[in-house]
Design a protein that fits this description.
The protein is of the alpha+beta class. It folds into three domains: 240 residues, 3 helical TM bundles of succinate and fumarate reductases; 92 residues, Roll (Ubiquitin-like (UB roll)); 206 residues, Alpha-Beta Plaits. Helices cover 57% and strands 15% of the residues. It is built from 20 helices and 13 strands. Strands 6, 7, 8, 9, 10, 11, 12 and 13 form an eight-stranded mixed sheet that branches. A five-stranded mixed sheet has the order 2-1-5-3-4. The longest helix is centred in the middle third of the chain and has 38 residues. 30% of the residues are buried.
């Protein structure tokens, strides 16, 4: 029970308002996609639209789904308004205020449609379906067609921006982006064309008296009095919504006034820089307000720890870390109470601190990509090291040693590149290779295992080539592990390299070191074996202790790395 409760407890700690808003947004976007696809059926016929809406409503009005949907809608709107109040710093890129403005405009634009259709059905049993709505837009009140078109485009763009912010750090996004873009353009285009085609059909059919009698009766569209009542309800709700937005803006002003009256506090950066800000601002917001460079890869969303600061002096008076801040600090192994996240800490008194990560302050003529400033991604790390290089150097001239080490690294790099990996770091006679920069996790794991096999083959060839000059054949050790890492440009000024940082990289290095004690050529984590789809009994398993980890790690011991390619091929045939 305790074991099962631990992941749930961690999930709760990791969940904040942003995560809830994201989940609600995904639910709403699923509804929008379903609705748009239904509109697209108008390119076939109005009858196809009516058939599609039957299944659409059958699903979305199923009671459990309906409860989830309306809860998500209210929660998403409420959290969006709360974000407007909470956000204190508005120096955003263009796309962020655009998303906010579009999102806040949706409730006002959709209110009349929701009240007219859903509440009209609930109160008066109106059956307003596609024929009635298309008649309204194309015959009775053409002006509303433009309002509905604007609403559809705003809802779609707002949702696409949210999906982009959610998926852009995912490992598959670079490969999926062209298809997602095509989908993002195709669906609304077909939807609007479907509405137009359906509307044109209704325009023609509405000239028929029998069609009007069948589709424009009291049960379908209601009476003038009923529709006026629905319009008044929609108008009242819109007035209430705009009033709520006004209250939020007033509350922001009152908060700013109270903070100024409550006094200013001094934030000292430990390098002689001091700024004065109102109480209530986070340290990161204060840095942005006063143009003080401050590292923050995730943009102040508490998804990384690069904005960490160490408080100088007494830290007992600091506000208690929020649930999200405590989760992030625990994830990075920080138990020191003087270390806090600048994006979450809102001091109420003077504070002195220094930043743990120096921000990049140099400029570049080229636009930085998301990977250059840091990106979360699932990667497979392969560490390989040449065995006996110290003894080799003792018995050879330095340039001869360099020649052999370079040939070794060349053979290793060739195997990595042939199997879709990227040689990343060369440290002495060892190398770190990364897999998954342009592949999904399963493919990355299989590529890494095949690369390990290829390393064995290429080193055999190198040993044959240098057999006349080597007293003993070149040996090697390989460690392979996969997991979420941060990739980006690391370094200073002109000495910047692209690499990966994270626990998964460190574990791969530890596994490589273990090949010496285990007398094998490779140690592969169970994570990689499972993702690659190798059979359970393909390789001997054991648990090993990893320095810095409380729990042992399940690994697979590979005596002969060359066998890995055959095991991967076998798993691929079974999967096929």
């Amino acid at each position: 029970m305790a074991t099962a409760a631990a992941p749930m407890s961690e999930l709760v700690r990791a969940t904040g308002a942003r995560q809830v808003r994201l989940v609600c947004g995904v639910i709403l976007f699923a509804y929008v996609v379903s609705h748009f696809l239904n509109h697209a059926l108008g390119n076939i016929s109005v009858e196809a639209m009516e058939a599609g809406v039957y299944y659409h409503t059958l699903f979305w009005q199923f009671l459990p789904v309906s409860i989830i949907f309306y809860t998500a809608a209210l929660s998403h709107m409420g959290l969006g308004i709360y974000a407007l109040y909470q956000r204190r710093q508005f120096r955003w890129r263009t796309i962020e205020p655009l998303q906010l403005v579009l999102g806040l405009s949706i409730p006002a634009l959709v209110m009349g449609h929701v009240i007219g259709v859903r509440l009209g059905y609930t109160l008066y049993d109106h059956q307003k379906l596609y024929p009635q709505e298309l008649y309204l837009f194309f015959v009775a009140a053409p002006g509303r067609l433009w309002q509905m078109t604007i609403l559809l485009l705003i809802a779609w763009v707002h949702g696409c921006i949210g999906i982009y912010f959610w998926l852009r750090l995912k490992p598959f996004f670079p490969r999926a982006a062209p298809y997602l873009l095509a989908t993002a353009v195709l669906i609304p285009t077909l939807s609007l064309l479907g509405i137009y085609q359906g509307g044109r059909s209704i325009e023609i059919e509405s000239d028929d008296r029998d069609w009007r009698a069948q589709n424009l009766g009291r049960r379908q569209v209601g009476t003038v009095a009923e529709n006026n009542a629905l319009d008044r309800i929609a108008g009242g709700l819109n007035a209430g919504y705009f009033g709520l937005l006004g209250l939020v803006l007033v509350a922001r002003g009152v908060r700013a006034w109270r903070e100024r009256r409550g006094g200013m506090i001094a934030l000292s950066y430990g390098n002689g820089k001091t700024v004065r800000v109102p109480k209530g601002l986070s340290v990161l917001e204060a840095s942005l307000r006063h143009n003080v460079p401050h590292a923050s890869v995730c943009g102040g969303r508490a998804r990384c720890s690069t904005c960490r600061i160490r408080v100088i002096g007494d830290h007992d008076a600091l506000p208690t870390p929020s649930q999200r801040e405590a989760f992030v600090l625990t994830r990075v192994g920080t138990a020191d109470p003087s270390i806090r996240l600048a994006c979450q800490l809102r001091p109420t008194s003077d504070l002195s601190f220094f930043q743990l990560f120096a921000p990049h302050t140099h400029s570049t003529d080229e636009a930085s990509t998301s990977a250059s400033i840091g990106q979360e991604r699932y990667l497979v790390s392969l560490f390989v090291d040449m065995r006996g290089s110290t003894q080799l150097a003792e018995k050879r001239l330095p340039f001869d040693t360099v020649f052999i080490v370079n040939r070794f690294l060349g053979a290793v790099s060739q195997a990595v590149i042939e199997n879709g990996g990227q040689p990343n770091q060369f440290v002495g006679d060892g190398m770190l290779a990364l897999f998954g920069l342009s592949a999904d996790p399963q493919t990355a794991c299989r590529q890494a295992l095949k690369a390990a096999s290829g390393i064995g083959v290429h080193i055999d060839e190198l040993n044959d080539l240098l057999s006349h000059d080597l007293r003993e054949p070149i040996r090697f050790g390989i460690g392979i592990h996969g997991g979420e890492v941060i990739i980006g440009d690391i370094g200073y000024r002109d000495h910047v390299v692209f690499t990966a940082l994270g626990d998964a990289v460190n574990v791969a290095a530890r596994l490589q070191e273990m090949t010496k004690g285990l007398a094998c050529e490779a140690v592969v984590s169970e994570e990689v074996r499972d993702n690659a789809g190798l059979a359970e009994d393909a390789l001997p398993q054991q648990e090993v202790a990893i320095r810095g980890r409380d729990e042992p790690l399940a690994v697979r011991v590979v005596a002969n790395a060359r066998q890995l390619a055959a095991l991967v091929d076998r798993s691929e045939r079974v999967a096929a």
